[in-house]
Inverse folding.
């Protein structure tokens, strides 16, 4: 075994695209302080394709105008442990029949950890963030301004464990804001804002899933509270706030401690609304030169 250390820097003023990163088998790596601009791939993972046995850490990085034909407009990940924090996905999308995860598609039986992440205008897919199987943890993330999507925020499929906390889905348009498919387990989902979304079906989606949402705030949204497809499942809303009421026929199991038709509705201010690293480079780079490390990767080969 030997170690290959790769470190590249680039002055991107005006903006320019850099290489696409594709992980080799049996490798682990770090992507830190990196910038990916207008990268397209005709396979999964517009900017990054990590399909390997190992771990991947992505931090303090930006993915702008990246796209793929298939899963993961910004990142496709199938690694043992994925950690992504303090990063931004702006105007990323995926196309094709299997269009899942316009920003990130992450699968594997291992852990997927997301924190302090912003996804804005990531569209045309099932989920700006698509998490498939394994252990799933999302904290202090913001999903905004996406459109033409089945699930405008996070979509969860068959998790082994699930945490979704202190996050916000706002000013999106699509079928639903967050979706859950095929599970019945003790989840940890709390303090999430679903605010000002144009949803054609429902605030949340359930398909053969049974779960509880705690301390969620639902205000200024169109659509029903829930909608289901194929196998119904059920949702328990606990201590949630709504500016509407439950409609007949919805798959709501119970609503202990909830407030409905509130006159003055307050969002969770400690939930994550934006990221100061989520920027439009065409605006930012005209103001001052932008120089930062582009790739820092440690590969175990």
């Amino acid at each position: 075994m030997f170690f290959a250390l790769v470190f590249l820097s680039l002055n991107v003023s005006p903006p320019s695209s850099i290489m696409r990163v594709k992980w080799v088998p049996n490798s682990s790596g770090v992507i830190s302080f990196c910038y990916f601009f207008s990268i397209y791939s005709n396979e999964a993972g517009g900017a990054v394709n990590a399909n390997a046995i190992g771990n991947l850490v992505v931090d303090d990085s930006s993915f702008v105008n990246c796209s793929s034909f298939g899963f993961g407009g910004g990142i496709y990940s199938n690694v043992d442990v994925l950690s992504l924090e303090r990063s931004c996905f702006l105007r990323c999308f995926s196309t094709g029949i299997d269009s899942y995860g316009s920003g990130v598609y992450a699968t594997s039986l291992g852990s997927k950890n997301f924190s302090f992440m912003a996804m804005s205008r990531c569209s045309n897919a099932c989920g700006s963030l698509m998490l498939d199987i394994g252990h799933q943890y999302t904290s202090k993330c913001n999903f905004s301004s996406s459109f033409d999507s089945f699930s405008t925020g996070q979509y969860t499929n068959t998790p082994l464990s699930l945490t979704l906390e202190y996050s916000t889905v706002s000013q999106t348009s699509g079928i639903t804001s967050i979706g859950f498919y095929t599970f019945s387990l003790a989840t940890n989902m709390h303090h999430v804002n679903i605010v000002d979304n144009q949803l054609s079906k429902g605030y949340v989606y359930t398909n053969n899933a049974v779960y509880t949402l705690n301390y969620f705030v639902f205000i200024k949204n169109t659509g029903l509270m829930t909608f289901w497809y194929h196998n119904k499942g059920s949702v328990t809303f606990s201590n949630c706030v709504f500016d509407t009421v439950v409609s007949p026929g919805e798959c709501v199991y119970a609503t202990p401690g909830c407030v409905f038709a509130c006159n003055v509705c307050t969002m969770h201010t400690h939930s994550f609304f934006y990221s100061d690293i989520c920027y439009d480079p065409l605006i930012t780079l005209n103001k001052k030169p932008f120089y930062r490390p582009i790739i820092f990767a440690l590969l175990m080969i």
Q: What stands out?
A: Residues 71 and 128 are 11 Å apart (CA to CA). Residues 3-300 form one domain. The chain has one domain: 3-300. The first strand starts at residue 3 and ends at 11.
